[in-house]
Design a protein that fits this description.
The chain has 186 residues and is α+β, with helices and mostly antiparallel strands. 52% of the residues lie in helices and 18% in strands. The chain has a single domain, classed as Beta-Lactamase. α1 runs parallel beside α2. The two termini are 34 Å apart.
Length: 186
Amino acid sequence: MGKTMAAGLLVLLAAGSAFASEDIAVWKGRKAADALTRNLQGRMLEAMAESGPMGAISICAYQAQATKIHLERKEGVTAKRTSLRLRNMENAPDDYEMGMLNRFKTTTMTAGFQEERIELLVKGGAKIYRYTRPIFIDMSCLPCHGAREQMQEDIRAYLDERYPGDQATGYMEGDIRGIVSVTIPE
């Protein structure tokens, strides 16, 4: 009976450790996703209020990259925004992200909707967590992601110059824009 109890205790401790690791991964995933969505959107809204949509574009383009680098260095996670309709081709989805994008593509924004996913995977012999959460279009996104014919001329010109293969237009409020994808080492 002593060996059985000891074995059972080890299983419980291992399971507890796995749950604790997953909880930490979810926390890190949410923190990184917030940095690339909510926090970034707040800065874009401030820039839009001060200098219009052109100011918001620079925040979106440059601050997102700086945030990604910060998250990697400070938090040890890799995070990005990706989509089935890319603006920046460097953000192309990997196979896992493509699966998540296809899973979420028929999702629409509803009041309070927040779907996230966390999975433990083995990649190259190492355990990693993959965290994903959808990104939705709201009214503040439409000056740069709405119908091209309704965009200001300077925004269209900027997007054409900086992102020649831009596919990230034509959205309407509530559409899914893509996902935030975070890779967290175990």
